[in-house]
Design goal:
Layout: H1 3-19, H2 23-31, H3 37-44, E1 51-53, E2 76-83, E3 86-93, H4 104-120, E4 124-128, H5 139-155, E5 161-165, E6 168-170, H6 175-179, E7 182-186, E8 191-193, H7 197-204, H8 210-214, H9 216-223, E9 228-230, H10 233-246, H11 273-276, H12 287-294, E10 300-303, E11 311-318, E12 321-328, H13 339-354, E13 359-365, H14 372-377, H15 379-392, E14 397-406, H16 407-412, E15 422-425, E16 430-432, H17 436-443, H18 445-454, H19 457-471, H20 475-480, E17 486-487, H21 493-503
Parallel strand pairs: 3-4, 4-5, 5-7, 6-8, 7-9, 12-13, 13-14, 14-15, 14-16, 15-17
Antiparallel strand pairs: 1-2, 2-3, 10-11, 11-12
Length: 521
């Protein structure tokens, strides 16, 4: 074969690999409102940056008529490219080839790019669109999944791992995304479940649709499995790009820093906060509006925005630097901590700590949500996870008490006692064992009983509540003890946080020598 003929053969094989399952199956994919594996990569990555690896790999199964069905690439496109100029490794499953099912060769391709991502310290992104394990390959397919899971664990906390669900993801396949850091889903086309509707109906006689069982809204609102949900593939992939731009490439890199004259001035006043905070300590407000007034351009990429809405977590920038923000949400369940909120915030805090992302916490918490459902569900254990996450974190930690910080929830929310670096409070802050209404029932029981006899109980309760606030429920007692580093005006919040973050830029903190702690899982 001449050199020219060899070049022609190469081009022929490239074209065949790019065809995937062929034009008919591609047309079905488009008819379902879904893009092809390669079209998704083009949309996600910088134009012309994708370099494909292993395009000529085929499956190894020779049974069940599979020998005659060999297709180059074997149902997954793998390689690397760039997002905003930074290297990213990724794989994109091709539903047009055997339904994107995972074979031994398919898994080996994914494992190869994961190994390379770990070796060079670059994020790994998986675009999932698969019917599950390839039955014809039996245990080799199952072994392929386990090899991927093992690598997910090795990559955890070393490089960011992002899973994008763009079709079905069922059975054992769901456990790889579950280990990764963030899961994106698309409305009406993404599904995740361990067992599908048909099996559930056979075993438990429950009749449930794919959407209700494992659709994007289910996992965004009820299970908390999904971190981001979007109406279309394009919007979803654009959001993935935005997240990658906010994150460091690995656990040894510093967070990305934006510079330039278009940045918000570091010394600007936070003019909206004073008007936002209600005079009444029991009146709700939206903590996201407070955050928007503090951070650059008011932009926050909220994580799990539809789940456990009594706490807000997300990524933003402060003086151009990426930070993670956590805040109790008084507009939902009065900002109480419950099981779901504790899990959501603990996972976020641990991610930020893994990747050197400073944490800013806004505290307005009346306590843990009471009730038998919470106690039976294990609020003691799950609340301890958030406490553990904050205590374990060694990144710069800043906290601002905006209004209430009562009971054990005060300790949990990045208090000075679990080694937050700088803690501030507004003059409106109330820091105490419990709220005035409950406290006076214990401290002033006799006075209240006397007032009931005289018919002046309402006036007496108001007087005693104010007495309690003056004595206990204010920031100055904590400031006297050094638990609060400063009582600040709301309009100074941005300046104070930027200055504190600058001081902490060289923070070094090492914990005790150990294999790992035993977080209460």
């Amino acid at each position: 074969m001449t050199y020219s003929q060899k070049l022609q053969e190469l081009e022929k094989r490239k074209r065949k690999a790019e065809e995937g399952g062929g034009p008919e199956r591609l047309a079905k994919q488009h008819a379902a409102g879904k893009r092809s594996a390669r079209e998704r990569l083009e949309l996600l990555l910088d134009p012309g940056s994708f370099i494909e690896l292993d395009p000529f790999v085929t499956h190894r199964c020779t049974d069940f008529g599979m020998e005659s069905q060999k297709i180059l690439g074997d149902g997954v496109v793998t390689g690397y490219g760039t997002i905003a100029g930074r290297t990213i490794f990724l794989f994109s499953q091709d539903f047009t080839v055997f339904g994107g099912s995972l074979s031994g060769a398919h898994a080996a391709k994914i494992c190869k790019v994961m190994d390379m991502a770990l070796k060079v310290g670059a994020p790994i992104i998986g675009l999932n669109d698969s019917g599950g394990a390839r039955i014809q390959e039996g245990v080799e397919s199952l072994g392929g999944y386990a090899e991927i899971f093992w690598r997910n664990v090795q990559c955890s906390g070393v490089i960011p791992q992002i899973s994008v669900i763009l079709g079905p993801c069922a059975g054992g396949a769901v456990y790889s995304p579950a280990i990764t850091d963030y899961i994106f889903m698309v409305e009406d086309s993404s599904y995740m479940f361990v067992t599908g509707p048909d099996v559930i109906k056979t075993v438990t006689h429950e009749d449930v649709s794919k959407e209700a069982l494992g659709g994007a809204s289910t996992h965004a609102e009820k299970s908390g499995v999904c971190h981001f949900v979007h109406p279309s593939e394009q919007a979803c992939l654009e959001a993935v790009r935005k997240l990658v731009e906010l994150l460091p490439s690995n656990n040894l890199d510093q967070t990305p820093l934006l510079t330039g004259s278009t940045l918000d001035p570091a010394d600007r006043d936070c003019k909206a906060i004073a008007q936002l905070l209600p005079d009444s300590p029991n009146k709700p407000y939206d903590i996201r509006l407070l955050m928007a007034d503090v951070f650059d351009d008011g932009n926050i990429m909220e994580v799990q925005s539809h789940y456990a809405q009594n706490i807000v977590v997300g990524f933003t920038r402060l003086a151009g630097q990426t930070v993670g923000v956590v805040g109790n949400q008084p507009a939902h369940l009065a900002g109480c901590l419950d099981i779901a909120a504790s899990l959501k915030a603990a996972r976020f805090v641990r991610f930020c700590d893994s990747f050197n992302i400073p944490l800013v916490t806004f505290v307005d918490v009346p306590g843990f949500l009471p009730g038998t459902a919470q106690e039976y569900g294990g609020i003691i254990k799950h609340g301890a996870k958030l406490l553990y996450a904050y205590a374990e974190a060694t990144v710069p930690k800043l906290a601002v008490i905006t209004r209430k910080a009562y009971g054990g929830a005060y300790d949990v929310m990045s208090s000075k006692h679990i080694r937050s670096d700088f803690n501030f409070a507004y003059p409106t802050a109330e820091i105490a064992v419990m709220g005035p209404e409950g406290a006076i029932n214990i401290l002033y029981r006799q006075e209240i009983q006397q007032a009931e006899k005289s018919g002046r109980v309402h006036e007496e309760r108001n007087r005693l509540a104010q007495l309690y606030r003056d004595k206990f429920a204010n920031p100055y007692k904590a400031a006297e003890l050094g638990y609060i580093d400063g009582v600040i005006l709301p309009e100074d919040t941005r300046r104070v946080l930027i200055q504190s973050l600058k001081v902490l830029s060289g923070k070094r903190e090492r914990g005790p020598s150990r294999k790992h702690g035993n977080i209460p899982l």
